[in-house]
Please model this.
Amino acid sequence: MKHILSADQFSKQDLEKILTRAADMENILQKGGSKIAEGKILATLFYEASTRTRLSFETAMYRLGGNIISEADVQFSSQTKGEVLADTIRIVGGYADIIAIRSPNIGDAKLAAQYSPVPILNGGDGPAEHPTQALLDLYTIKKNFSKLGTQKLTVSFVGDLKYGRTVHSLIKLLRHFEGISINFVAPESIQIPEKYIQPNDTLINTLNSDILKNSDIIYDTRIQRERFEDLQDFLNVKDAFIFTPQLVNQMKASAILMHPLPRINEITLEVDTLPQAKYFEQAQNGVPIRMALIAESLGL
Ligand code: CP
Model:
């Protein structure tokens, strides 16, 4: 049984195996899918809003020939009656062969894993981690920079780096690869937490032309309104960085602009047709990555 709880759990060898399996899954998808998970059930327990993560997990299971059961709205869950997560997981683990969970609470995926008789896949736990997103981000990077690990790359994370769980998980994965320089670009109040910083990283508060011109990968993020305790703190930073064609045109022709989505106003719609814009391709990569993760976790 293989839980996927944190980006910390992967070795470089694990990452290479998952990326290779995802590429195989992409070939399988082009041929119409597979039946390797026939008879298996994925439960999706999403106690926080989601479009991409839940639906791509569910698509992945269908494309593998399996089925899904879903609790997509906490309002209709017995958790609203006071049931504790441990009990929910014990019960759902008796119905399904694997569980993907999203929760607003840090550590809930790990807690679920303690009680689950089946593999747990962390689909995001509060502001802490989003490891399956990080894997699809890494897959997107590898598809665009095939020499990842043997070429020099500058990666700039921009936006809400304090609460952006996808950033926290992706940084951990990138640390396995040689030749990567990291810039953290954020207002002071939402800069990257200290535990993610290494001595050679650069922290700045402004998105200047050096960052735009020298980055190979810009990973932008939404300012996560729902995580702020004080609305005014959110309002102070909500429009800190807005990618327009004028800014994106300063990036190298070979550079890519990523974003885990959803975006609000931090990338204007006019950017979508520029060659650097890779965020929709990135979101599509969620299906082969999650097919690979379901298959690996189930030992298929
Ligand atoms: N990237 C991501 O986690 O999107 P959703 O919140 O829509 O699942």
Q: What stands out?
A: The mean pLDDT is 96. The pocket of phosphoric acid mono(formamide)ester is lined by residues 50-53, 124, 133, 260-262 (CB under 6 Å). The longest strand covers residues 41-46.
